[in-house]
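Re: that chain you flagged

S.,

Sorry for the slow reply, it's been a week of failed gels. I finally had a moment to sit down with the sequence you sent. For the record, here it is as I used it:
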Amino acid sequence: MPTYEYRCPEGHEFEEFQKMSDPPVATCPTCGKEAERLLSAGAGLIFKGSGFYITDYRSDSYKKAAAADKGGSDSSAQGTPSADTGGV
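Prediction finished late last night. Pasting the structure tokens below so you have them in one place:
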């Protein structure tokens, strides 16, 4: 749920944590006058971890077909040497 910023004609500013579907708060908690909702930039979104790409939600049948098109599955990469061998 987002936090909305409000300001009344007297200059009092306050924030309300409410659902997007809730109607705007009409009165200032300090003076009781009618308040208006302010437009704000809000907080930025941070995407971390997996789950934010279209390929993360593909069906199992799609993944199997894609693996068959490549000529194998993820386990075929096990035979490749690692770049970090430690000089051995």
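What I noticed first: The two ends are 55 Å apart (CA to CA).

Talk soon,
D.
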